[in-house]
């Protein structure tokens, strides 16, 4: 019997284990054009927190009591669709469960690349595309720029660090705790700020980038964003990817340095990775080559078993992961 | 004997009359290439508050005890420079004084247009250029857009309202008090918000623009900016021109709706009018024609006499002006 996680109650602030419930899914015979997939890898991502609220957003809210969704990699175990055979490794959006039944039109076969399949949930998937297009398109970062990236030990941030270094930029990352900071440094960052050290981020950034920053890749908002404003050089570009600091608290963001946008002609631009989905093929070729050649290091934090999936999700908000957080089924 | 206002002390918060001192200027014979100008009109502008602080910014700070500077229109009364004759009406940046001596290279003759000369400190000058390029270039506003503009009764804001209407946009302005709101409405605004009414600006804006806004022209920052974020539609563009709310207080800006930049792909861009000085000639032709034809209404608040210039300046922060605030010498 297939099992899935459902949202039982909408969290107020930080989600609790009691907000999740494991449910069993009814037997579902395959309709014409459908495939049955045994999920092998499931993704947890910060944006899912937004879907737990009952508010209109760029993705619809999760329905209480129904299986949640998210990125997943699995193996076709039954096919009623042309072009899909048992054994094919595929990617789709019916995660948070061990088995998925869905139309083949909503399933993508994995490209034949010499990388582990779970990379398609990380650097070759949504987090990788977010890093790649956010840095190079939204922030228009170029060789010679000084780039500041928050949550630099996360799935997106750690990829931003590595792409930026591969393209000739100076990179300052921010991460929480000595171990993560050392890891970000090992990825090639020129300097790393430990935001848990007690030093105000603006002060630490001023020391790490005495000449200021040209680009800020924002995953967290809040004090990091304000620090980036304080350090921004003329014509700096900010790509706003996430604001994990406020996803749970809902608190107002206090910005002391916002008026700098005027004198320094700062551009701040929010984006969603789906804006770039039509360029996925070119992205997979470019990033796939960087991964295969070792230019990009792959790092994953793997949680074992569907039962532990809420732990994996909650760990995103408490600094529980280095690189991409994954659940292996 | 020529007289000028000097900054006597750097204000902490809202400037006081005691921060200003009238000084007399030493007799200054004309050097080769210089002109002497009897100033007729002097400009006070919110950006001057920034020059009163001793911090690096896009314009250098005023020097304590020395004459302040600012936009001025005057008549050449003595010339030692080719191309300038007694009687020429000119524009320059040695304001805050009744007589100016400076190199002719820092003086512009006024174009021969059928408009009162003081318009070159308003709609044909810096405030007009700010409105024009901020709206059409920085925010890329186009026909059909819904535009929100704060400080809509000010020199810049009232011009934004009128350009936007002339270009087929829907316009919501914000101003303080019934009289100013009525005036902004008379300029063509489709709706006006009275920010002094006690209704939260976000609520008032949601009622005035139930489908949201495409463009926000920001002169004030603070609660207005947050309201604009709350109402921003997909791909909204914000041109950040000024943040008069924090010029004096220095307080942090609290934004409850900042995370909307992500889902709605909002672009926020700061600018300074000098970025567009190389396009001044085209601007004067276009705006001059709109003024001459009556498409733009000219409104000025005139304070009489150099002695009252600090009153004029302080009035900018207490809502003392409709349209452009000017001092007539």
Give structural attributes.
2 domains; alpha/beta; homodimer; Quinone Oxidoreductase, Chain A, domain 1; Rossmann fold; seven-stranded mixed beta sheet; 329 residues
Description:
2 copies of one chain form a homodimer. With 329 residues, chain A is of the alpha/beta class. The first copy, chain A, folds into 2 domains: 3-123 and 298-328, Alpha-Beta Complex (Quinone Oxidoreductase, Chain A, domain 1), CATH 3.90.180; 126-274, Rossmann fold (3-Layer(aba) Sandwich). Helices cover 26% and strands 26% of the residues of chain A. Chain A contains 10 helices and 16 strands. The first copy, chain A, has helices at residues 48-51, 126-138, 155-166, 178-186, 201-208, 222-231, 244-247, 260-263, 280-292, 309-315, and strands spanning 3-7, 20-24, 34-43, 72-79, 89-92, 99-103, 108-109, 146-149, 170-175, 191-194, 213-218, 232-240, 253-255, 267-270, 300-304, 324-328. In chain A, the strands form 3 sheets. In chain A, strands 3, 4, 5, 6, 7, 15 and 16 form a 7-stranded mixed β-sheet that branches. In chain A, strands 10-9-8-11-12-14 form a 6-stranded parallel β-sheet, sandwiched between helices. In chain A, strands 1-2 form a two-stranded antiparallel sheet. In chain A, helix 2 (126-138) crosses helix 3 and helix 5 (201-208) crosses helix 6 (222-231). The longest helix of chain A is centred in the middle third of the chain and has 13 residues, at 126-138. The radius of gyration of chain A is 20 Å and the shape is globular.
